[in-house]
Amino acid sequence: MGDIAGSRFEFSKPQKFDSKTVRLFEDDCFYTDDTVMSVATKYAVLQKIPYAKAYLLFGKSYPNAGYGPMFQQWLRGPSHAPYQSFGNGAAMRVGFIGEYFQTLEKVKEEAGKSAMCTHDHPDGVAGAQAVASCIFLARQGCSKKEIRNRIEKNYPYHLQRSLRMRRPFAKYDITCAGSVPLAIRCFLESDCWESCIRNVMSITCDTDTVGCIAGGIAHAYYRKTGFREMELLKKYLIRPAAGRKTDSFLFDWAVAEG
Description:
With 258 residues, the chain is mainly α. The chain contains 15 helices and 2 strands. Helix 7 (104-116) runs antiparallel to helix 8 (122-139) and helix 8 (122-139) packs parallel to helix 11 (176-188). The longest helix has 18 residues, at 122-139. It starts with a helix and ends with a helix.
């Protein structure tokens, strides 16, 4: 849902944009590659198949979701070898890993596997593991201070810098090193899921991906979004298909019981 809320502001915001009052879910919102690959990760875990196989299946099933050029080449290529990416694509798709597995060690192991099939640069792997760890720790009831301290101890991220200090210098950044600490900071300064997403909206960034990451952590911590989640997911994830049919595959796996 963080991806969908941030989708329409990924590259620009209208004049007089106000992150405190803008409606988060409108008719021109849409899911992006963040949602598709997040659901693909869930599919891989529940179906017990390699992450690469799930990413290929979902990527080819939803080819117009806004993938980066390197991932598009990976989808089309014959070898499907990892390509040393350090982009934020490794971090945005690991939410279910942090929710599903029962130990932090297993969460980090699986997050690393999910990254390595494409984003095998150390920064890509670190981003995936850090996000999945945040979600696991939040789910376990750790405080924000505990989460921040453990992430800063184990990953190359400085999380002390406030959003107020970041805003004047913020820029669009699609790397893990740029997106992950910002997303965590948006969570740390929130008091509910909605305020976390509004924090994302308040700063220049890759809003759909940062929203996806931050929203996943916030949901694990607050346990709810405050929105009618099932209604919104039906609205945005179920799409018309050939003839009179509808495509509910993405929705069905998004809400599948883990």
